[in-house]
Amino acid sequence: MKAFEFFTPTQIIFGRGCLAQIAEEAKKLGEKTLLVTDKGLMKTGLVDPIIAALKTGDVAFDLWTDIVPNPRDVDIERGAEYARAHGIDSLIAIGGGSSMDTAKAIGALMTNGGVCADWIEGNLKHPIAPLLCVPTTCGTGSEVTHESIVNNTKTLEKDCIWGPENSVTTAMIDSTVIDHLPGSILGSTGMDALTHAVEAYVCKAANPLTNGVALSAIRLISDHILSAVQNHDPESLDAMMAASTLAGIAFGNADVASVHSISEALGGFYDIPHGVANAIFLAPVSRYSLKGAVKRYADVAKTMGISGRGESLEDLASQGVDRMAALADRLEIPKFNAFEQVDPKDFPRLAKTAAKADETEDNPVMMNEQDFIEVMTAVYEGRL
């Protein structure tokens, strides 16, 4: 067995209604906090009860909403400047991956100085400012990963601030926050979590601990995602939130693979939502990668509920990929060619970005620029 590391320093508080404790937990982090969320979430009213709880609990805080779906370096740097100028010593992030990644990156600059580009090589000198995360989707897993994905506004590519210093202090996971989340968002973020779990299991960096966590996430998502989207029942919503966190722990301690290489290239260049991009490319890239990890993809298929009695591992693995594609269709994930900004002329540039991504090295089969062009073209034309 090869050597591996497994690092999970975040305190996880899970349960419907647990956000009633948020003021108590926030006070453990510092004297004055920066509440990081986005304007869209503010308009839903979802943040209002949390703000009320913080006020009732006499938590000193300022509000920061200057963020976008794919967090940009310039916005993060403005947030860090604001925090330093206003005596902020801790942070609370409420939202999906964009809010949590923004808060982690702001926290990194608060304690390490400089700008985002200074810290994209896993070279943080100091732990980020204390951070409490409240995920409001069932997809990102950012509350338990050690990464902040940052959109570089100069290169139009995604950079990553990463390392054990970039860890969340406390994650409060309360499924009541997704009680009224639109089914389309539940579906795409749930597929995002499925992508995290599948890639964590099949990638070359998988290890015995991440294997168990990843398969647990795959099982929960397979059993509950359709009910969560269609019925919004508490049991399914709880399961999806737990699965998202499990998937985050899995890929945070293993890696993702070439689905993410493509989705991050698309997010940086076209600003396509990360979960949607992952949902579009999970089945096509998995099919392309089957030959590199047939047994592992067969395990995924069985965990998704495919019996495979008397069938070869290859057939079972292929059926698993078929199930991923069918799930994306049932959840009405948009087609790649439905995005007006997507132009096949850009595929060589996007392929170059994807090929040089770190996670590409951990894909079950090595993919070069031409491979990525072929996959994107086939998906765009509806052939894969």
List keywords for this structure.
2 domains; two-stranded antiparallel sheet; globular; six-stranded parallel β-sheet; 50% helix; Dehydroquinate synthase-like, alpha domain; single chain; Rossmann fold
Report on this structure.
- This protein is 50% helix and 11% strand.
- The longest helix has 24 residues, at 208-231.
- It has 14 helices and eight strands.
- The protein is α/β, with parallel strands linked by helices and 384 residues long.
- The chain has helices spanning 22-27, 39-44, 48-56, 73-85, 97-112, 183-202, 208-231, 234-253, 258-270, 274-289, 294-303, 313-330, 347-355, 369-380; strands at 11-14, 32-36, 60-64, 90-95, 131-135, 147-152, 157-162, 170-173.
- It has two domains: 11-178, Rossmann fold; 183-380, Dehydroquinate synthase-like, alpha domain, CATH 1.20.1090.
- The two termini are 35 Å apart.
Order the strands across the largest sheet as they lie in space.
1-8-5-4-2-3
From the spread of the alpha carbons, the general shape counts as: globular
The radius of gyration is 20 Å
What are the low-pLDDT stretches, counting only 5+ consecutive residues below 50?
none
The helicity comes to: 40-55%
| Integer tally of domains | 2
Count of DSSP-assigned helices: 14
CATH topology of the largest domain: Dehydroquinate synthase-like, alpha domain
Overall CATH architecture of the largest domain: Up-down Bundle
Name the structural class: alpha/beta
Count of individual beta strands: 8
